[in-house]
Amino acid sequence: MEAFGEYLARIDHAEHRERMEKVLAWVMEKFPKLEPKIAWNQPMFTDHGTFIIGFSIAKHHLAASPEREGIIQFSDEIMQAGYSHSKMLVRFPWDRPVDFSLLEKMIEFNILDKEEYSTFWRK
């Protein structure tokens, strides 16, 4: 969690900070080979130098960004779980629990789909 200490300390809302910390700790525990880092002022995880997933905080939700392909792949499941999404992110409202099984699927998809990538982003 050391990589995210300064970022977490800047989150004013205690519940939002706790939720973000819980999600980041879960990713680190579930996917220990992913590298935690801060880029573009957001916590994210990479694998062999390629982006896997990033997180951000908004007024009404915690956002997870698995890139556009991750959204396309899981759009139906995201909607069935009762979450909304844009082209690039899933919105996990503060008043609802995070669906960690859905988050796990999105991360696993990106790890497998991008295992041959040598660039940070998909082309």
UniProtKB/TrEMBL annotation:
It comes from the Bacteria. InterPro entries: YdhG-like. Residues 16-111 form the YdhG-like domain. This is Iron chaperone. It comes from Salicibibacter halophilus.
